[in-house]
Amino acid sequence: MEEIIRSGAAAPLSSYTEAVDWINSLIPFGIRPGLERIELLMEKLGHPHRKLKFIHVAGTNGKGSTCAFLTSALIQSGYSVGTFTSPYITKFTNRFQYNGTDIPEETLLKLANQLRPLAREIAGSELGSPTMFEVATALAILYYGEVCYPDVVVWETGLGGRLDVTNIVTPVISVITNVGHDHTDVLGDTLTLIAGEKAGIIKPGVPVVSCVSQPEAVAVLKAKAASTRSTLYLAGEDFSYSKVKQRDGYQHFTFNGPFRGLELDIAMKGEHQLENAAGAMMALEVLRQYMAFMLEDEDVLEGFRGTFWAGRLEEVSTSPRIILDGAHNPEGAESLAKSLPQFQPYRKLNLLMGMLANKHHESYLKHILPIVDTLILTEPDFRKKMDAEDLQAIAESLRNKYAKDNLEIIVERNWGQALQKLQTITADDDLAVVSGTLYLISDVRSTLLRQPDSEKGW
């Protein structure tokens, strides 16, 4: 312990790269659910989170897109907005945005130097070292509470909700996008258990908006909202949405809420984005109706039209046509399969996928195999990667029941060579898709868009 405490007086970090390396050096401490370490960090910092208004967003899928809709509409409406999300697609700084712009590298360095001695103090206690995500969350709170002071912070959970580090805040409104099978090793293996973890972000008296649909999950949310005397706005009961048509590259849909109805356009592709947009719209309606947020219709609608979120049905190449989508669980795969017909007609669908080792790959493949002509299996450049040959074994076991008769399965463990193969075999009238873990999406995206300064991580 003496050595750990002495090391707290080590020379300050001298560069952005050193700061990120230090934060990432905490990754081996893993995911450790619980709020004790972040609470102690906040106490040592003077509780800067108590100065801020948060919109807390949890859910299995759609969290990032929902955060993007909220951020865009609020900025367009004249509010200054902090946005904390994970993982990132291009650079570590993507996690910490203010009005759509990443935290400056020099600011991140300064805040990391402020946090490092405190983290080392805690590492020397019985609580053990803070994790990477705990330090990143503390850095976000410092940035918003001590540096840029946004009017509101759009605040995405990392994993679950109840014991997630982000749950240290008391928001002005909570949003739970949906509940599905993901991180079952941590959150539980039933929808009821997973919903209970997500519902943990519901705070006494704080309204909550949700698009959760499964009866057992809805029951959990209703019980939690009742016990905390929180008003629950539930899709299908308290608000609804329906697609009208596709026009000029936008999805046009109607939103009907308890206060009024609206018609909106979104450029984000995939019918699941209508659900995300409707949930975000309901949250904004509550803020407008009960919390004096000044939100003019034309600003909100323009904010929704202009929303973009990287790696979600994102077209990054036209010759050949390549779509990136970070679907990595069964519900994401189902949405992807339903959404691809929205793109221009294609002759063959070639799909490149790579996964982490802790996901429901069999259920994922049941949704994907019926639509794929060529499946290329690879491995992301990440320590928890799934062996491509193990993925192949799962795919082969499902071939007879789910796959097309002429399905070709290719194994290429090197993701760079797998991407080249995908490009080579995709003709002008075909469609190529890269899907799976965002660690793979990040590398492929930076390669195709020629972003040499790209980083990646959780």
UniProtKB/TrEMBL annotation:
<keyword id="KW-0479">Metal-binding</keyword>
<keyword id="KW-0460">Magnesium</keyword>
<comment type="similarity">
    <text>Belongs to the folylpolyglutamate synthase family.</text>
</comment>
<feature type="domain" description="Mur ligase C-terminal">
    <location>
        <begin position="311"/>
        <end position="437"/>
    </location>
</feature>
<keyword id="KW-0547">Nucleotide-binding</keyword>
<dbReference type="InterPro" id="IPR004101">
    <property type="entry name" value="Mur_ligase_C"/>
</dbReference>
<protein>
    <recommendedName>
        <fullName>tetrahydrofolate synthase</fullName>
        <ecNumber>6.3.2.17</ecNumber>
    </recommendedName>
</protein>
<keyword id="KW-0067">ATP-binding</keyword>
<dbReference type="InterPro" id="IPR013221">
    <property type="entry name" value="Mur_ligase_cen"/>
</dbReference>
<dbReference type="InterPro" id="IPR001645">
    <property type="entry name" value="Folylpolyglutamate_synth"/>
</dbReference>
<dbReference type="Pfam" id="PF08245">
    <property type="entry name" value="Mur_ligase_M"/>
</dbReference>
<keyword id="KW-0436">Ligase</keyword>
<feature type="domain" description="Mur ligase central">
    <location>
        <begin position="57"/>
        <end position="283"/>
    </location>
</feature>
<dbReference type="InterPro" id="IPR036615">
    <property type="entry name" value="Mur_ligase_C_dom_sf"/>
</dbReference>
<dbReference type="GO" id="GO:0016874">
    <property type="term" value="F:ligase activity"/>
</dbReference>
<dbReference type="InterPro" id="IPR036565">
    <property type="entry name" value="Mur-like_cat_sf"/>
</dbReference>
<dbReference type="Pfam" id="PF02875">
    <property type="entry name" value="Mur_ligase_C"/>
</dbReference>
